[in-house]
Write a structure and sequence with these properties.
15 helices, 361 residues
């Protein structure tokens, strides 16, 4: 909105041409969302504390969680979403269909997450809505998002699946592209949700993956850089970097309050929306496999839950002391801060590996 307003005066004030650069608007988007979250964070937390909008703690979790985390406000994802949308309205080119796809996915999954958090608070348990209800709505939101992407964007590569390390290995998915994309969005959404179990654990990996894909979006939307890196050129996709800048800034601002010991939890409101948005970006930029690498920590957390459930149903035995896997290490005696920092280190390594795939082809 502000971006379009500025463009009206470019011919009068040539200095305003600087706002045409994606790098400038990405930086401004990041700063705006971070500033908004930091500005409203404290009164937001105080209000939620006063209204007792707090997170029910799992009874089967680590013992110190019941003592340390009970009474901590939840639904902090609202803070993140406010920050993101503030920056998007100001600095994104709202004529880009890619931005509207992302806005739809983030809004839809954010509302679903908020309803889930509300149910947990109202019923005073950690269950919330049923798994079946949640997964069906996630699938529907993902399908509508993909249909918008197919019908309102001009991307001839949309149905292609590209493999890192192999410049000529491309598979056209055809109509299988829709269920594949739904799997990516729903899987990413739930993977981030499962990771969000310790103070700051999910926030930093989201920042790292968003930063990687801000760069990937920029080079994918630049014909010179995309040809040099031998990756598909997709016109207009660079605008996504501005959206991702908003995610980075909002998460940085949120981390100020979510760092151990957390003053507020992200809740499903934030984790479902953030995970779904990263999955959607991976699909749009045609770097779905790179997303699985850079977001490898999220994959690990999700796989640990799947393995635990299957093992228990098939053999009656649990592989991990507790799933997701971050709780397994807590049960083994690792301090929460140790688990969080070591998982952050893993995320940094995976992010670097993911970026390296752009050149190693």
């Amino acid at each position: 909105m502000l971006y379009k307003f500025i463009l009206n005066y470019v011919d009068i004030f040539s200095a305003l041409n600087v706002f045409k650069y994606l790098t400038v608007r990405t930086g401004l988007s990041m700063f705006t969302s971070m500033f908004v979250v930091l500005l409203i964070g404290t009164p937001f937390i105080n209000f939620f504390s006063m209204k007792h909008i707090t997170n029910p703690i799992r009874n089967d979790g680590p013992d110190d969680h019941i003592v340390k985390k009970i009474g901590t406000p939840t639904m902090g994802g609202l803070l993140i979403l406010i920050g993101i949308f503030s920056a998007v309205l100001l600095w994104c080119d709202l004529s880009s269909p890619y931005i509207w796809v992302l806005v739809f996915i983030v809004s839809g999954l954010g509302l679903l997450g908020a309803y889930d958090d509300y149910k947990k608070i109202k019923l005073n348990n950690s269950t919330g809505v049923s798994f079946k209800f949640k997964i069906i709505l996630q699938i529907l939101i993902a399908i509508f998002g993909i249909l918008i992407l197919i019908n309102f964007t001009d991307n001839s590569n949309l149905q292609d699946l590209y493999f890192p390390f192999f410049k000529d290995l491309i598979i056209n998915l055809g109509w299988f592209f829709i269920p594949f994309s739904v799997f990516i969005i729903v899987g990413s959404s739930n993977a981030v949700n499962l990771t969000d179990g310790l103070d700051g654990l999910a926030t930093v990996p989201v920042i790292l993956v968003a930063a990687c894909f801000a760069f990937i979006s920029y080079v994918t939307g630049n014909i010179v850089f995309s040809e040099y890196l031998q990756i598909p050129y997709i016109e207009g996709v660079g605008e996504i970097s501005v959206f991702l800048g908003a995610i980075i800034g909002a998460c940085l601002g949120f981390l100020w309050f979510n760092a151990p010991p957390a003053k507020i939890f992200m809740g499903d409101t934030g984790s479902l929306a953030l995970g779904g948005s990263l999955g959607t970006v991976g699909i749009i930029t045609k770097h779905e496999i790179v997303l699985a690498i850079t977001g490898g920590l999220f994959v690990l957390e999700a796989v640990s839950v799947i393995v635990q459930v299957l093992s228990y149903k098939l053999t009656g035995k649990r592989i991990f002391k507790m799933a997701p896997i971050h709780h397994h290490f807590e049960k083994k005696g690792w301090a929460e801060s140790t688990v969080v920092i070591r998982f952050w280190i893993i995320s940094i390594i995976l992010a670097m590996i993911g970026l390296a795939t752009l050149k190693l082809r």
